[in-house]
Every structure is written in structure tokens, then in C-alpha cells.
Amino acid sequence: MKGFEISRSAALLSGATLLLFPVAASAQERGDANGSGADIIVTATRQKQSLQNVPMAVNVATGDQIEKLKIFDAKDIQQLAPGLELTNTSGRNNTTTLRGITFDPDQGTAPAVQVYLNEIPTDAQTAYTAIYDIQQIEVLRGPQGLLRGLSAPAGSITITTRRPNFERIEGYAQATATDRSGYNVQAGVSLPLSNTLALRVAGLVDGNRVNFVRDINRGGQRSYGTTESVRATLGWKPSADFTAYLTYQYLTADTRQFQQVIGSGNTPFYSFLPYGFGALVPDTAGGRSGPALGIDDRAAVQEGVFRNQNQTHIVNLQFDWNLGPATLSFVGAHQSSKLIQTRDQDTGNAVPGYFNASELVIPYPVNTAEIRLRSNNSEGLTWGVGAFYQRQTGNVTVDQAQDTFIAPVTPFSLDSRTAHIDIPTNNTIWSFNGNLGYKTGALSIQGGLRYTISKGVSKANIYLTPELAFPPNPLIGIPPEFQRHVRRPVTGGATISYAFSPSLNSYFSYGHSFRDGVAGVGLPAAISTDIILSKPEKTNSYELGIKGSLFDRRINYSVAAFYQTFDNFLGRFDGIFIHGPFNDGQAGINFNGDAKSKGIEVTLDGKLTNNWNFGLAGSYVHARWSNAQLPCNDYAHTGTPNAVGTPNINPASNLNGNISLCRTSGRLADVPDFSLTANTEIRFPMEKATPFVRALFTYRPGFYADRIQYDYQSRELLNLFLGVRSADERFEIDLFARNLLDQHRITNISQGNAVQGSFCQPGYFFNPALCNGQGAPLDSGYRLVNVSNPREFGVAFSAKW
After folding, report:
1. Is residue 31 part of a domain?
2. CB 161 within 8 Å of CB 134
């Protein structure tokens, strides 16, 4: 059976994780629009605190900043944060890399960066599908294992939506349209119902061309996505000591995204005719998988669709109760999502006329609750205790074609089967934490531990239609010995900070986090346990930083240096050829290896004049495996990753004859070590209006990706905004250009050409007599790529009241 992997909540934990930019917290956002220098208040430590005094690397973006920069798509966030790479190669699997640490949601593990919506963990794909009416986004860099319920090795993102105003009616509306059929309309309004009760209602309608690709084998159809969402928040404030918010959010999104390809294409020996059980016959019409295509063609050749649908309901309740010496806080939520993915897996059209169908249905019911009690002391001894609970259930189902071609026999026959996979999920997490601190004058010390009990049952039954006499039906997708897990990790951290002056603060922090391994689903039978089950990951991080300001806070700066080690880092390796005793296949594999990440991050922002703001941020991160032996395709037996020739195992370096292994100290993720971002706004105040020019520039140098042996080019992305706002800042109109330089760069590329497996390729029961002595997978002649979006012009109008 062909390899296919989903485990536990595999396809749910999309790592579309966003990271907001250090530059976002520029002087312009530290007070009024002209930059008064007021403090930014964050809740990174689960209490309100000045950004300069938080003893960790925290980046902040306000809702106003997001609206001004027309951030409607999660992928645009990577333009704003050095050290962040956010990709979405298929429209579903948002992959986030931060500080060189990457996560692929198909891993099925906990994400490297946890996402919190109004203080409740949620899946990134849902959280970032609709970005509107945001109060503030905070990004915590480095391991998180103490202050929030779930552990994460790279950081946490907290999104806070706007809350109702108890004192007055207020709101905003923004409408945007582009020359490439994009539109975004969003609005929000607060209604004080009484002195103690208030309501805020907000909504969004969005449409765009996603990756701007058209499918030449589907009549030139274009990728397109639509999103609709509404959110209502009811606030209750019966006294100055008690405040509660109840929020409901509904989201529906529908995206059809075609996979871009480049290459010469191929003239297949056969074309598919769906008669009987299916057959491939000699192609006398001279058909091809498609024409020669380059980067600028932005074309796909798949004959079926790739459609992703998301329907989500979220209910969230929060309250804070000041008891005098301490504050009691509670947050609880219920999320009910249904994700449906339909796709043609023959993305390169290796077999013209053939539709390799797959449908994935993911129900995502999750209940979460957390209660905390913390002291209100600003000096002396401080303390806090809390308990966290989360339960996830649901039954993931997969219906996937398991067709096997017999090539190059004439007629080119097809053994047509369908696999139905049931993956019931039942995971429960309890965690308990406590922390102690002491503050006296300029010195502050804090530390704590979190004890977690994680229990889960992961099963998978695989049904083949029509049934096979051997192996039995259903197949057991996860071996019984791996179906139950219980983990009791201890995580935590400590910080020491010292304020040399009101304008200069220093800190040292330590963090420890944990991620559990998972069992793969649908891998070939009787293969090595090391391939089926990945090991738990542990990480320790040390960070030293300073934060300060100059010239009466007209200039602000921060510098952070960190060093992080991983025991059994959880990596993801897609498309690995697996040789099993009964059958072969290609699948994604989770695998462990030791690793290290170290680097430095610098930000500088402020006001050159009262009407000229600027921001600069740079990041250098060296994240590498530590002489690790990892899964690879090594068809040429060179000891390095390559996919040239017929799929096979390197006899000199393999794991129990199942997969090839390559030793490496290469990158943890295919991202450059260095990145830079800069922004500026210059205003020209007049009596009744203020014209302005706003620019955002991002630079990422080229680098060599050893895993796929490809040289990525450098990327220079410039967004420009020209506009005018009223003197009272109630109205604004913008003309803007995204990717003004119209630079087209490959951001992701497959290791080799897209192929369709054949019974007659070695490893698939190769029989020289049956296969006429020949054998190879069916090659489409195309590599799968993702390319930076083309230049796009737009206009936006916004109003506030």
C-alpha cells in the first residue's frame, strides 16, 4: 500500500503560525499616530506590563498597524519579521519557521509555535484565516513551557480581538480592492448597552487569487479563495474589580488552489481511458502532461481540483476578578471546526486523463479551560498558581485512491483500489503550574515549573475496496503497542532582569519545553519501529538581552542573543522512499536528531522628526542538525540527498533496509540565516488633511538548501503606500502596490519531478517478464514550486468613529 500519514490531530495543528514584527512596535504605535513615545503594554507574562520591562524577546503589532499595512493574508506577515518564514505550499499546510526552527502541520505533533486566540490555544489555520478587528498581537520568541497551557520550543503567538467600549459608541470600516480581483471588507462597532454592559460586533468578507496560478488543463481556471466571518463580544463590568467577556466567532472559508509547476513536461507512453477497471492505452494522439513551463507562466497542469473548506464555531469566556491581594482569572472555550480537503494527487499530470482522488475530513471539537490566581504585589514577593485542561476528540477520515499502474506493459493496466482510513482521536491534557518571584527596586527575579499529564488514544483502521485476500481488511494503521500514550513532562523557566535606568533594562532568561512524538499512519507493514514512532523532543534555551530608549524615547532599541539545544528534535521528511517486506511506497516520516540554534536579533525604531518614523530589524540565526543521521532519498548512493534515477535504498547507509539515511549538520529548515526588514512613514501635515508615504521593505539573501540540492535566490520585497488622512484621523484613503519591483522568486521547490508510482518500478514487485524488462515511475517532467506573488495594485478606504 502507498504510504500515507496522519496521526492524532495531524492535519489540524496547522502551523500557519504568524509572527509579528519587531518593527511593528515603532514609535508611531507607541502613542498617537505621530508617535508620542507612550509605553506599549503587553500581557506576555499573563499580566499587563511595559514592553521595555518584559524580560523576554516580545514583538508587538497593534490592530491599527495591521490595518494600515493591509495585512489580510497570513503569508504577508513574513514580510514584517526578520527570522520568520511562513509558507503554504498547498493551501492547507501552513509551515512556520522561527529562529530557524520549523514545523510542518502534517507532522501531527504539537506545533513549534503555539497560537492563542483570546488566551485559548487554537489551530493556526483557523486563527489566521480571518484577520480582522484585532486589538493586539504579541509574539513571544523562544521556548514556552510555563506561563501558558501548552509547551512550544520556538515561541507563542497571542491574538487579542478588540473588546467593547463601555463608555461610548466607536468603530471602524475598511474596504480594499486590487487589480487582481482581490477584495477585503471589514468593520467593527462597539455599543454600550448600559454602564455595566457593552457589545462589540465585527465582520469580514474577503476574496483573493491565493497563489495567482491558472490551470491550463482545466480551461485556464484560476486559484481563488473566499472567507466570511462574524464575531460578537459581550462585555460585563459590574464593578471596577470584575470584568467578563463572552465571545462568539463564526468562520467559513473555501479555497481552490492549483499547484504551480515548472519544467519541460513529458510525453507519456500512455493515456488513461476509464473503461472496465481502468487501463492505459498507447497514446497515439501525441498528448503530453503539459507544455514547457517556467516561473513566470504561473501555471498548473493537474486535471482535478485542490479544494480546502473550513467551517468553524468558537465560543470563548474570560473573566478577571481582583480580590485585593490577588487576582483570579479564568478563560474557557469550545471550538468546533470541520475541515474538508479534496485534491488530485497527480499534481504533475504524469498520467493524462487520470484523476488520483483524495478526500480528507477533519472534525475538530476541542474544549479548553484554565484558571489562575496571581498576587497583585508590585514589590517584594510575587507568586502565581494555575491549572489548565484541554480535551480533543473527533474522527478523522481519509478516502484515497490506491491505484497501482503496471508499466510499460501494453495495454498499460491499472489495479484500481480505494483506501478508507478512520482515525479516531481522544486526547486529554492536564497541567498545573506555579511560580515565585521577588522584585526590589531595579532587580526582578522569577521562576516556575509546569507539570503536565498528557493522555491519548490514537488508532487507525484502513479499509481497502475491493478487499485483498492478503493482508487482512481492515489493516491496522497504528500498531497496538503505539495506540496509547501517557506522558508526564516537567517544563518551566526562569528570568532575571535589572533596570540600569528608566531607559535601559537588561535580562537573562532560561526556558525548557517538551514535545511528544507520534506514530505514523498508513506506512508499509513490518518496518522499523524508529520509522513508525518518533521520540519525544526536549529543548533548553538561554537568552541575554537589553532594551532601551534614547533622546526622550524618540529612539528605541533592543538586542537579544540566544543559544538553544535540542535533544531529539522532531523533524519532518516528505516523499521518502520506503522499502517494506510486503510493499514499497513514498510517505512523510517524522524522525529525530540532535540540533542547535543560536543567533542574535536587533531592532531599532523611532522618530527622525515629528513627521518621519522609521523601523529597522535584523536577525541572524544559525540553526543546524548536530551530525544527525536522517531519512533521505539517496537513489544515486552518494550519501547525500538526491532523487535522480529509480527509487531504491542505499545498501551502505540505511535503517534496517527500510529507508536510506544521510548524515548531516545542515539546516533545520530551508531558510536563510540572515534576514532584514525596514519600514518608514513620512507625513506632510496640512490644515485639513495629512498626505503620507509609507514603505515596507524585506530582504532575504539567497542560500543553498542541501536537503533538496537547490540554490534559492535572494528576495527583495518592497510594498509602497501613498495616501491621505483627515486631520482628525477619522478618514484615510490609500493607493498601494505590493511587490512593487515585481520580483518573481521560487520560495519552495520539490526535490525532484512529480511522479506517479508504477508496479513495474523496482520495489513494486518488479517482474522483468511481466514488465518487459523495464521499470520506472511515471515521470511528469515537472517540479512542484511556490513562487512569490506578482505585483499587485490596490486602493483602500477606511473610516473611524
Report:
1. no
2. yes
DSSP 8-state secondary structure symbol assigned to residue 144: B
Q: What's 202's domain CATH number? A: 2.40.170.20
Cβ-contact 784, 260 below 8 angstroms: yes
Amino acid at 28: Q
Give the Cα separation of 551 and 559 in Å (integer).
18
Q: Are strands 214-215 and 299-300 parallel, antiparallel or unpaired?
A: parallel
DSSP 708: T
Among the listed residues 72, 90, 91, 300, the one whose alpha carbon sits nearest the alpha carbon of residue 178: 72
Give CA 618 to chain center in angstroms. 21
Farthest-apart Cα atoms in the chain, separation: 88
- Residue type at position 700: R
- Of the CA atoms within 13 Å of residue 132, those in its CB half-sphere come to 29
Query: What would the DSSP string read from start to end of 266-325?
Result: ---SEEEE-STT-EEEE--S---S---B-GGG-EE--SS-EEEEEEEEEEEEEEEEE-SS
Cell 463580544: give the residue: 233
CA distance 596 to 252: 40
SS3 readout for 560-587? EEEEEEEEEEEEEEEEEEEECCCCEEEE
C-alpha cell at 511: 526556558
d(CA 801, CA 797): 14
Rounded distance, CA 274 to CA 279, Å?
6
**Strands 155-161 and 113-117, how do they pair?**
parallel
Nearest to 99 by CA among 432, 561, 426: 561
Pairwise CA distance, residues 332 & 319, whole Å: 9
> Is 721 inside any structural domain?
yes
CB-CB contact of 346 with 363 (8 Å): no
Which of 487, 508, 365, 357 is closest to 425 using CA atoms?
365
Reported as a single tens digit per residue, the pLDDT across 292-336 is 999 999 999 999 888 999 999 999 999 999 999 999 999 999 999
Contact 652, 619 (CB under 8 A): no
What is the pairing mode between strands 484-487 and 475-476?
A: unpaired
Grid coordinates of 483: 495506540
Nearest to 537 by CA among 511, 562, 512, 519: 512
Query: Does residue 219 contact residue 260 with C-beta atoms inside 8 Å?
Result: no
- Give the residue from 745, 739, 738 showing the smallest Cα distance to 703: 745
Model pLDDT for residues 487-514, shown as the tens digit of each residue: 999 999 999 999 999 999 999 999 999 9
| For the chain, counts of helices (H) and of strands (E) | 3, 50
Is 91 inside a domain boundary? no
Question: What is the average pLDDT across 472-499?
Answer: 84
pLDDT band for position 765 (50/70/90)? Answer: very low
Query: Is 299 a domain residue?
Result: yes
Calculate the CA 551 to chain-centre distance.
Answer: 39
Q: Do residues 503 and 548 touch, judged by C-beta distance below 8 A?
A: yes
192 in Cβ contact with 198 (< 8 Å): yes
DSSP characters over 317-380: EEEEEE-SSEEEEEEEEEEEEEEEEEEES-TT-SSTT---EEEEEEEEEEEEEEEEEEE--SSE
Domain count, the chain: 1
Question: Where does the pLDDT of residue 287 fall: very low under 50, low under 70, confident under 90, or very high at 90 and above?
Answer: low
Is the separation of the CB atoms in 327 and 374 below 8 Å?
A: yes
Of the candidates 290, 397, 419, which has an alpha carbon nearest to the alpha carbon of residue 346? Answer: 290
Q: Could you report how far apart the first and last alpha carbons of the chain are, in Å?
A: 61
Task: Please give the residue range of the domain that contains residue 353.
Answer: 168-626+665-800
- 10 Å CB burial of residue 467 (0-12, 13-18, 19+) is exposed
Closest by CA position to 133, among listed 156, 149, 119, 117: 117
Torsional class of 799: left (φ above 0), alpha (ψ -120 to 50), beta (otherwise): beta
Q: In the structure, what pLDDT confidence band is assigned to residue 80 with cuts at 50, 70 and 90?
A: low
